[in-house]
Design goal:
Largest sheet: none
Number of domains: 1
Strand content: under 5%
Oligomer: single chain
Number of strands: 0
Distance between the termini: 15 Å
Structural class: mainly alpha
Shape: elongated
Number of helices: 2
Amino acid sequence: MNKWISNVGGLLGGYALLKAPVAGSFLNGLDPLIDGVGLTTVVVFAGALIYSGVRDWFKG
């Protein structure tokens, strides 16, 4: 259960990075980097959730 909550938290964190409003701030130049990190985080944690679910489905 704890691993599931951590994966969902990571997924939500990545989504928050994708939706972070950085236009007009001093982080404006880092917008492509922030989007890349957010997208990578979402893909990794979504894959971890899918892998965990399929593994648990076949386990029991």
